[in-house]
Every structure is written in structure tokens, then in C-alpha cells.
Write a structure and sequence with these properties.
2 domains; 9 helices
Length: 253
């Protein structure tokens, strides 16, 4: 039942996250104001704003003008709902603050993925809000975790900053800030998270080059979504991966 409830909550938040991803990068007010159709400007009625269900019932079109509604909206709602349920099932509720960190991280990563895919931009406001939320949860749940998480953020962000300096065309400062923020949530699990993000990005890059040839080398792709994917894997399995690595290569004597 808890997983079902969290799925519903996540789907509802997914609808809100799409609003954040659209309005924050454009400097629009995201606190108030009802959603409107970008084509005809008609206000979206409450009955047409039920996560996933409304999009299906409307067959993916605006009720007023018939303009297609992007599939990204129901996908974001479904995705965040699934992430919430899976995070609970994998992490459990003990301790509570780890689950809280996981759920908030899912929200932030989905929002950043949407903005980076849409605008090739990782807003400072999202990264900053995510960092503040992580620090607040850690301070309330287990202040003793703060030094290690801050160290992970500093090392992860610092290493990626050097990578950006060496290869500025590949990534940007937004990616550096994102990794640093993820360090607050993941601690030492940040290492496998970043490696998985790099591996996923490299695979997609190779696939593009294989399909388009030399022209594919010049195609810019946002790196934030790959880091977000790594962040989710790190959240769910990062500690297990780190423990496996330490046991395999640094066994206790």
C-alpha cells in the first residue's frame, strides 16, 4: 500500500515538476498561476489536470483547440511515480531520512532531465534548491553524515570541474554543479553513479557516430540526463556496488 500511495504522490509531483521545468528556466512564476495551453492560451481545467489519466482521456490533445499535448507530460508523471515506488521498495523506511533523501533526489533529477533535454540547461535554482533540501534532511536525520556527504560533493564536483577545464566542449558547469549536488545525496555512492553516467553517455555517443558518421561527432547531446540516470542507479545500488568493489579488490587481511 505504501508503494501504491507513493506512486500516486510521485505522479502528482511529476505534473508539478513539468511546470517547474518549463517555468524556472524562462524566469516565469511557478508558485501561482494555472497551467495554460501554449497554443490557444486556454486555462487547463482541474478535470484535465489529473496525472496520466487526463492525457489518456483527452487522447493527448487540448480540449479547447485540439493541439497535441506532448507525451513528455504523462511520461514524467508515470516516471516519477515509478521512481517513488521503486525507491521505497529498494530502500525501505529505516532510516527515514535516507528514504526522504531518495525521494527528493528523484524529483530534482527528473526536473533537471526535462530542462536539459528541452533547453540544454541545468538551472542553478534547481541545483541550489536540491542542495539545500539535502543539507536540511541530513541535519534533521543524521548530522554525523554531513562531513562525508560534503566531502563527496567537493571531490565529485572538483574532479568534474577539472574534466570540464580539459574538455569544455563535452560538458558544462551545470554538470559540475549537478555532480556536486548529487554527492550530498549519495555520499561515496557518487563514484559508481558518475561512472555509470559517463558509460551511458559514451554508449549513446558511439551509437550516434555509428549512425551518422563524422557528422555525429559534432552533434551536441545534453549530459545531464545521463548523470541523472547514474544518480538513480547510485541511489538504489551504489552502496552495494562500492561494497562489492572494496571486498573484491581490497579484502580485509
Amino acid at each position: 500500500m505504501i508503494a501504491v500511495v507513493l506512486f500516486v504522490v510521485g505522479a502528482a509531483l511529476g505534473s508539478f515538476v513539468t511546470v517547474l521545468a518549463h517555468r524556472i528556466p524562462r524566469g516565469e512564476n511557478w508558485v501561482s498561476g494555472r497551467s495554460r495551453c501554449p497554443n490557444c492560451g486556454a486555462q487547463v481545467a482541474a478535470r484535465d489536470n489529473v496525472p496520466i489519466v487526463s492525457w489518456v482521456l483527452l487522447r493527448g490533445r487540448c480540449r479547447s483547440c485540439g493541439e497535441p499535448i506532448s507525451v513528455r507530460y504523462p511520461l514524467a508523471e508515470l516516471g516519477l511515480g515509478a521512481l517513488f515506488a521503486a525507491t521505497y521498495l529498494i530502500l525501505g523506511t529505516d532510516p527515514w531520512w535516507e528514504l526522504a533523501l531518495g525521494l527528493v533526489l528523484c524529483v530534482v533529477l527528473v526536473a533537471i532531465t526535462l530542462t536539459d533535454l528541452d533547453l540544454r540547461l541545468i538551472p542553478n535554482a534547481m541545483v541550489g534548491a536540491g542542495a539545500v533540501a539535502a543539507l536540511a534532511i541530513l541535519a534533521a536525520g543524521d548530522p554525523g553524515e554531513l562531513p562525508g556527504r560534503l566531502l563527496a560533493a567537493a571531490i565529485g564536483g572538483g574532479v568534474l570541474f577539472l574534466v570540464v577545464l580539459a574538455y569544455p566542449r563535452g560538458m558544462g558547469m551545470g554538470d559540475v554543479k549537478l555532480v556536486a549536488m548529487m554527492g550530498l545525496y549519495l555520499g561515496r555512492a557518487l563514484a559508481p553513479a558518475v561512472l555509470i553516467g559517463f558509460a551511458a553517455g559514451a554508449l549513446v555517443g558511439v551509437a550516434i557516430i555509428a549512425r551518422r558518421g563524422a557528422a555525429g561527432r559534432k552533434q551536441a547531446i545534453p549530459f545531464g540526463p545521463f548523470l541523472a540516470l547514474g544518480g538513480i542507479v547510485g541511489l538504489w545500488f551504489g552502496e552495494d556496488i562500492v561494497e562489492w568493489y572494496l571486498d573484491e579488490f581490497f579484502p580485509e587481511s
